[in-house]
Specification:
binds pyridoxal-5'-phosphate, globular, Aspartate Aminotransferase, domain 2, 4-stranded antiparallel sheet, about 40% helix, 7-stranded mixed sheet, 17 strands, about 425 residues, 2 domains, alpha/beta, 16 helices, Aspartate Aminotransferase, domain 1
Length: about 425
Amino acid sequence: MNAPATLKSDPISEVAANSYDVDRIRADFPAMSLIINDHPLVFLDSGASAQKPVQVLERMDRAYREEYANVHRGAYRLSELATENYENARKTVAKFMNAASVGEIVFTRNATAAINLVASSYGRAFLAEGDEIIISYMEHHANIVPWQMLRDEKGIVIKVAPIDDDGNFLMQEFAEMLTPKTKLVAITHTSNVLGTITPIKDIAQLAHDHGALVLFDGAQGIVHCGVDVQDVDADFYVFTGHKLYGPTGIGVLYGKKELLEKMPPYQGGGDMVELVTFEKTTYREPPVRFEAGTPPIIEAVGLAAAIDYVNGIGLEAIQAHEAELLAYATERMGAMNELRIIGRARQKCAIISFTLDGVHPHDIGTIIDSRGVAVRAGHHCAQPLMDRFGVAATARASFAMYNKKEEVDVLVDALNYAKEIFA
Ligand SMILES: *Cc1c(COP(=O)(O)O)cnc(C)c1O
């Protein structure tokens, strides 16, 4: 039914893919040896959260055992050590995104908290009634709801940039939506449902030409494509640690220095203040201005270890490997009758949403789980996108650096089994 995806042949990627030792990588991830329902786990839900390598687990364990105290407070060696670790993690993140300075990296709880920070701080201070924000049809609820809350509070207008039936971002239509009233463009770097990779550099340029700022939701994008925030000229870029092979409980807001500097604090408390009296409080500079209370200290250390791990393998090599998995899975799943792949964008990462005629996505999930295959089923926190494609839910197989082709075969066999049960 569906035409197989065409695989771009890129000589550099091929070299990277050929030297890619997926079994060695799998050996680093304890979850890859799990037996679930009497079957080896085939984990195809990294789009919801990725598994962690031992390098991350051991680094966090050591930090808790030997390097643990609160940060930015104690005048003793252990607290200094914890503070160094925490601030070094910020450096690792800054380098990974190519931020111009370490002060542009704010640690948050997750991507959602980072977007809420921008909406609450920047939005409340600098957006006024009638100002326009452009999002897209592909947004995760995390990049919809904070703007709606701001709309209800401030009377701003939210416009939604369209996509075509394959899930491509429509640049021309987007360009026509920009007006002098557009103050912010908040778009996903990569769709967690369709896998679409959006042209963030072009979007930023167009938005800037119209005097608007850009925020990119990189929760998926940074994992599958990486980002150079200076090259893209992003004003804000957010991501979440747990999808990048790091721990839960930590996310990142990248913000340009001049923007963070003029933004008021979002939450008040310890650490973010300079001087407190009952009459008046003065606030510290970014990024600590936005990090009220005890921060995710060990999570930051774990995130840095995850980034080191990714760098050790190489983002390009991971991308090439995932592109191969995507092409193979698209071909094999596309060849199945009754299977509809939702999302066939030209630029796409290894996420495949699909439906199977006659089988509810939740039933697909349950049946193939009996074969050890873990996929997500539901609306994927993107209900408006489900409406756009006329479905209530999909099943979604999302791939990561540790998946292998043989697992695609297991998935397809399990899907055929689900089809037979419902036939
Ligand atoms: C997962 C995800 C989020 C939210 O990440 P949290 O860790 O839950 O805050 C936002 N946007 C996209 C595209 C996602 O995939």
